[in-house]
Design brief:
This protein has a 7-stranded antiparallel beta sheet. The protein has a single domain, classed as Structural Genomics Hypothetical 15.5 Kd Protein In mrcA-pckA Intergenic Region, Chain A. It is built from 4 helices and 7 strands; from the N terminus they run E-E-H-E-E-E-E-E-H-H-H. It has 177 residues and is of the alpha+beta class. The longest helix has 11 residues, at 26-36. A hairpin with a 7-residue loop joins strand 5 and strand 6 (93-101).
């Protein structure tokens, strides 16, 4: 499946609408969400139906289960879950499944629309973001730059075997006859 996900930072007007491939692994999709907000590499997780699902650090899986496909979450259209980014623990990122189809008619991954740049400050809160949004220093969100970050990272993991080894799996060795 392919998904349009709307990620909103609760209690702010900051959000992104991104297109992702359901065949991408959990750590990869979590990193695409982090890149949409231009977050630094950090541990990430999803909270689906009150269950915390770890999603690696900076896109790299720390456990082999983080290489499960995003489709394995079995999300429904209009279902909500949460994304947590360790470096921004005080922010709640609500994710809404806006579309779930066999094929979306847009390039993947991409950020189709959104609002507000997240300031580069430690210990971000919704209040900090709102104060930034009301300030004269606000910078406009550049959707092209966001999409370029996502596409540079890619729709799917490029080296699954190496990611599995890095996450603790044994290397696959094929023996010839």
């Amino acid at each position: 499946m392919q998904y349009l996900l709307k990620i909103s930072i609760e209690n702010t007007n900051c959000w992104r609408l991104i297109a992702v491939d359901g065949q991408a692994d959990l750590a990869h999709v979590a990193e695409l969400i982090a890149l949409a907000f231009d977050y630094e590499a950090s541990k990430q997780s999803f909270i689906v139906k009150d269950k915390i699902i770890t999603c690696g650090k900076g896109g790299e899986p720390l456990e082999t289960r983080e290489l499960n496909a995003f489709d394995s979450l079995n999300l429904s259209l209009n279902e909500e879950f949460y994304f947590q980014h360790e470096s921004n623990k005080l922010l709640k990122h609500k994710v809404l499944v806006m579309k779930k189809e066999d094929h979306l008619y847009c390039l993947m991954p991409s950020c189709l629309v959104g609002s507000l740049v997240v300031p580069k400050e430690p210990n971000l809160t919704a209040q900090t973001i709102n104060q930034y949004a009301d300030s004269d220093e606000i910078i406009s969100l550049d959707l092209r730059a966001v999409t370029n970050r996502l596409r540079a990272y890619g729709s799917l993991r490029k080296d699954l075997n190496q990611a599995m080894i890095n996450a603790g799996a044994e290397p696959i060795v094929f023996k010839g006859k």
